[in-house]
């Protein structure tokens, strides 16, 4: 072959084919998956933090907020009672129920003065102590039964387990002031809330355990509260009897 002759096509080297490197097909979706997972983790974490703060807020409200609120309500009811008694009303209607008395327990301090309202609804128990329905009135023959919270909502019976036989419970009404002396202590009797014999005019323990003594007379008082600090279906019960009735100056003059 001379220099002027062109080689045949068969003698030409094949052209190199340029190939583009392609990224893995799943790379973009992988990054998106990681990003989505991070967002889910972030918002889940935020949700847990918010939920935790909500729980802490609820607990704080139960243990401190409700006590503050109930303290304000008790003050309102006491003022309403004093005003109503001055107008000759034995029962004073308030925003939280009908109020009839103020209970003092000297062992709980000289400033302990909790209003007594009729019934045992949550509204009543958040504003003072409840006088159980169908039980005797203060100072009357029968069983005067009072129920109150041991924790939260003013916790008027927080220290009930510390009561001992011989401690006094003083109940002030428009007509008179009644002094009861306890026959049992705050840790002597714990019963399920379903046992209603403690509400009877003359309570008799069906199991033969703690009950008012035979010589307690016919004018009794019973205090009820939860047996434990947290929610429980059991009740701590204290019994006492009337030892003194002191009419108010207005009643004595009449």
What does this protein structure show overall?
This protein has 254 residues and is of the alpha+beta class. 27% of the residues lie in helices and 24% in strands. An eight-stranded mixed beta barrel has the order 2-3-4-5-9-10-7-6. The longest helix has 60 residues. The N terminus is likely disordered.
Rg over C-alpha atoms, rounded to the nearest angstrom: 38 Å
The helix count comes to 3
Q: Helical proportion?
A: 25-40%
Q: Please give the alpha-carbon distance between the first and last residues.
A: 153 Å
User: What string, H for helix and E for strand, traces the elements in order?
Assistant: HEEEHEEEEEEEH
How many β strands by DSSP? 10
Low-confidence stretches: 1-7, 9-15
Spatial ordering of strands, largest sheet: 2-3-4-5-9-10-7-6
**Which word captures the global form?**
elongated
Q: What labels would you give this structure?
A:
254 residues, alpha+beta, eight-stranded mixed beta barrel, 3 helices, 10 strands, elongated, disordered N terminus
């Amino acid at each position: 072959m001379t220099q002027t002759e062109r080689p045949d096509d068969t003698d030409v080297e094949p052209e190199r084919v340029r190939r583009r490197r392609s990224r893995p097909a799943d790379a973009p979706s992988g990054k998106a998956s990681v990003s989505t997972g991070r967002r889910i983790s972030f918002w889940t974490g935020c949700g847990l933090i918010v939920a935790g703060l909500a729980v802490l807020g609820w607990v704080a409200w139960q243990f401190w907020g409700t006590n503050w609120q109930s303290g304000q309500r008790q003050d309102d009811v006491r003022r309403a009672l004093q005003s109503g008694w001055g107008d000759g009303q034995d029962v004073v209607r308030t925003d939280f129920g009908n109020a009839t008395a103020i209970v003092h327990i000297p062992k709980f301090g000289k400033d302990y003065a909790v209003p007594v309202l009729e019934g045992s609804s949550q509204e009543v128990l958040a504003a003072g102590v409840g006088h159980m329905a169908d039980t005797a009135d203060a100072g009357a023959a029968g069983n005067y039964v009072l129920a109150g919270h041991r924790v939260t909502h003013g916790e008027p019976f927080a220290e009930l387990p510390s009561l001992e036989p011989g401690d006094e419970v003083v109940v002030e009404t428009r007509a008179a002031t009644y002094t009861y002396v306890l026959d049992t202590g705050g840790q002597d009797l714990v019963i399920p809330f379903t046992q209603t014999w403690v509400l009877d005019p003359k309570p008799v323990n069906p199991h033969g355990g703690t009950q008012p003594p035979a010589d307690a007379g016919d004018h009794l008082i019973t205090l009820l509260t939860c047996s434990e600090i947290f929610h429980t279906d059991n009740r701590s019960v204290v019994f006492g009897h009337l030892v003194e009735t002191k009419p108010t100056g207005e009643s004595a003059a009449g």
